[in-house]
Specification:
Elements (H helix, E strand, L loop, with lengths): L2 E9 L3 E3 L12 H12 L3 E5 H14 L7 H12 L1 E5 L11 E4 L3 H10 L3 E5 L2 H9 L5 E7 L7 E2 L11 E8 L4 E7 L1
Parallel strand pairs: 1-6, 1-7, 3-4, 3-6, 4-5
Antiparallel strand pairs: 2-8, 7-10, 9-10
Amino acid sequence: MGKLIISEHITIDGFVAGPNGEMDWISLDNTLFEFVGKLTNNADTALYGRKTFEMMDAYWPVAGNKSNASKHDKEHSEWYLKVNKYVLSKSMQGSDRDKTHFITGDLTTVKKIKEKSANSVLVFGSPSAVHYLFSQDLVDEMYLFVNPVLMGNGISLFKGIDQKTKYTLASTITFDSCRVVCLHYTK
């Protein structure tokens, strides 16, 4: 059975996006891209919320084919095209296509996705989906990429959590050139 792993950029005060979904505060560098590449290489399944899926699907299928594509664009595009993708969405029901499946927020379906995964199920972004996954106690690991930013308000990663769940800090990685610290937690 695969583990469900969330990978999130987050501010010091716990936000994953600004009040209007802004993500212009996220810091990235090639070292961080390489690290995320290792996460994706270990995942055979991706789980998204609708908004994040629409953003990803508009970019990644062709990103690696562009003449100016970076190493990260080529590698992530290749991964995106080969993995099974599940999208939590009520509005996109019946839109399934090769390697992309749309599901409602059904606990049994998400559990079955984890059971079918030989490696891991990786969740990028998708705060609404992550809120649901936390509420159902389905998150096995977290990679929180803490950016040195205080926002004061926005979309919280931990909105609506009403149960105590303990995680253990497994590792800390510092990406000096972009000043991001990755906190890896396991359940």
